[in-house]
Amino acid sequence: MIRLVLPLQLSNLASADREITLDVARPASISTVLDALEVCYPMLRGTIRNQVTFERRPFIRFFACGEDLSQELPTNPLPEEVTSGQEPLRVVGAMAGG
After folding, report:
1. Residue 86: inside a domain, yes or no?
2. Who is most buried in 2, 26, 80, 86, counting CB within 10 A?
3. 49 touches 57 (CB < 8 A)
4. How many other CB atoms sit within 10 Å of the CB of residue 27?
5. Residue 52 lies in a domain
6. pLDDT above 80: residue 98
7. pLDDT digits over 18-51, tens only?
8. What strand order describes the sheet that includes 19-22?
9. Local structure of 97: helix, strand or coil
10. Torsions phi, psi of 9, nearest 5?
11. pTM for this structure?
12. Domain housing 37
């Protein structure tokens, strides 16, 4: 089970808690986590990644274990702390402006 923390706006859209758990087959990656998320919460399709290209939306970031995983390949395995459920994978809506 993967613990996933969503931004408030996405958890509201999904009518879910901020932290949810998803059953993801190993090796778990950002891509497989998002696949599972979109199956469980279809209203979130297209909010985190483009529905056609599957690329991360520009102002969405992924963090785990104090590291920014946003620039990693989405198919790279997640850290063991995340796949074991010790640490959550966080989806963060980046802020822009001046």
Report:
1. yes
2. 2
3. yes
4. 11
5. yes
6. no
7. 999 999 988 999 999 999 999 999 999 999 999 9
8. 19-22, 2-5, 89-93, 60-64, 67-68
9. coil
10. -60, -40
11. 0.92
12. 2-93
Residue 83: name the closest of 41, 7, 23 by CA: 23
CA 94 to chain centre: 13
79, 59 contact by CB (below 8 A)? no
- The answer to the question of residue 60 being in a domain is yes
Write down the pLDDT at residue 97: 63
CA 47 to chain centre: 11
Are the beta carbons of 91 and 11 closer than 8 angstroms?
Answer: no
CB-based contact 41:16 (threshold 8 Å): yes
Number of domains in the chain: 1
Pick the closest to residue 37 from 17, 21, 58 (CA basis): 21
Asked, for residue 81, whether it belongs to a domain, the answer is: yes
The answer to whether 90 and 21 have CB atoms below 8 angstroms apart is no
In the beta sheet, which residues pair with residue 19?
Answer: 5
